[in-house]
Write a structure and sequence with these properties.
Rna Polymerase Sigma Factor, Chain: A; Arc Repressor Mutant, subunit A; 9 helices; 186 residues; RNA_pol_sigma_r2; mainly alpha
C-alpha cells in the first residue's frame, strides 16, 4: 500500500512552498492533507467543535499569509502548522476565558450532561499544566510528544521524522512521559 505523497513531510513542505507562491490548488491540497490533525489539536484545547472549526479557518489564513516564512530546517511542516493552530486556539481562549457565549435559543438546545463552568476551568487548568510540563522538555522531545500524542503519529512516523530507530523513539517517548508525570505531580 502506497501512502499519499502529499501527506509525507516532504510533500507537505512542497505544498507550503507552493502556497508561499499563492498557489490556491496547493493550498487546497495542504488543507485536505492536514486539516484533520490540526482540527484535533484545536478541538482538544477548545472542547467545542464549532469554535474549533472557526479557529482552524483562522489558522489556515495565517498559514496562507506566513507560508513564505516556513523553514524546513527549523521544524517539520506539521509542527509549524500545529504551532500556528495551537497558538490561534490559545489566543481565542485568552479572548474568551470563560468560553464562547451563546444566546438563549442555543442554551435551550444544550443537553443536560454538559460540563459545568467549574469543570471547564479545571479542565483548562489541567491543559495549561500539561502544556507547561511539555514545554519543560528539550525542544526535540516536545515536538515528538506533541506529534505522537496530539497528532497521532506512529512510532514509525516519528522515527522517520527524527532520523532515529523506532526503539530509540520508544525510549525517548517513555522518558518524556516520565518527566511529564513527575512535573504534573510536583
Amino acid at each position: 500500500m502506497q501512502s499519499d505523497p502529499s501527506t509525507s513531510t516532504a510533500g507537505i513542505s512542497k505544498l507550503i512552498a507552493r502556497v508561499a507562491q499563492a498557489d490556491r490548488a496547493a493550498f487546497s491540497s495542504l488543507y485536505q492533507a492536514t486539516a484533520p490533525k490540526l482540527l484535533g489539536v484545536v478541538l482538544r484545547i477548545l472542547n467545542n467543535r464549532a469554535w474549533a472549526e472557526e479557529v482552524i479557518q483562522d489558522a489556515y489564513l495565517k498559514v496562507w499569509q506566513k507560508a513564505g516564512q516556513f523553514d524546513e530546517d527549523k521544524s517539520s511542516p506539521i509542527t509549524w502548522m500545529v504551532s500556528i493552530a495551537r497558538n490561534s486556539a490559545i489566543d481565542e481562549l485568552r479572548k474568551h476565558p470563560t468560553g464562547r457565549t451563546v444566546n438563549d435559543d442555543q442554551l435551550d438546545q444544550v443537553p443536560g450532561g454538559q460540563t459545568t463552568a467549574q469543570q471547564q476551568v479545571e479542565d483548562q487548568q489541567s491543559v495549561n499544566q500539561l502544556n507547561h510540563c511539555i514545554d519543560q522538555l528539550e525542544k526535540e522531545r516536545q515536538d515528538m510528544v506533541r506529534l505522537a500524542y496530539l497528532n497521532g503519529w506512529s512510532r514509525d512516523d516519528l522515527a522517520g521524522q527524527f532520523g532515529q530507530p523506532v526503539n530509540t523513539v520508544k525510549t525517548w517517548l517513555r522518558r518524556a512521559l516520565q518527566d511529564i508525570k513527575r512535573c504534573l505531580e510536583s
